């Protein structure tokens, strides 16, 4: 979605399909293969893979649009006359414009997100304490955030049953979570 949907009106149908295939495979490859091999990416706390699904896919879509945008469709959707992709006579200029726009978006996001994080950090802590982080989602919330069994993890029925148990010893799940510092409503399904 981040790669193709906004740009699909600027390219032919076959190019939109190609963009969709690239948008599904390239971010997956960066998330599942490159991320595991990169020591820099492994230091980033990106539990939802936002970098791969939005930054990689968005940059990929911008570059592919710079290559594949047709003059007929860009005339309908843009206010800049003569805009076309590199494969349609636009030269490398359009790809350069797409990369410059991506760099602007990256810089804007760094500045604005940093401001938001600093403001929120003044009100509430941004991370759980280390002892709660070591416990993990299964113990803190009663479920796993991602069950990626293809990564060598196995579904452990006993852990799941223990996490879902309503009573353990003399304490309920809510009492155990409260003792760990968890607040809010816990729904046991």
Automatic annotation (TrEMBL):
> Which molecular function term from Gene Ontology is one that the record holds?
ammonium channel activity
Q: Does the keyword Zinc apply?
A: no
Residue ranges of the Ammonium transporter AmtB-like domain?
Answer: 8-146
Q: Where in the cell is it found?
A: Membrane
Q: Which InterPro entries match?
A: Ammonium/urea_transptr (IPR029020), Ammonium_transpt (IPR001905), NH4_transpt_AmtB-like_dom (IPR024041)
One cellular component term (GO) for this entry is: plasma membrane
Record membrane topology = Multi-pass membrane protein
Coiled-coil annotated residue ranges, if any: none
Q: Can you tell me where the transmembrane regions are?
A: 12-35, 47-69, 99-124
- Give the superkingdom in one word: Eukaryota
The alphabetized UniProt keywords are:
Membrane, Transmembrane, Transmembrane helix
The secretion signal range is none
Tell me which family the UniProt entry assigns to this protein.
Belongs to the ammonia transporter channel (TC 1.A.11.2) family.
Q: What is this protein called?
A: Ammonium transporter AmtB-like domain-containing protein
Q: Origin organism of this chain?
A: Aegilops tauschii subsp. strangulata
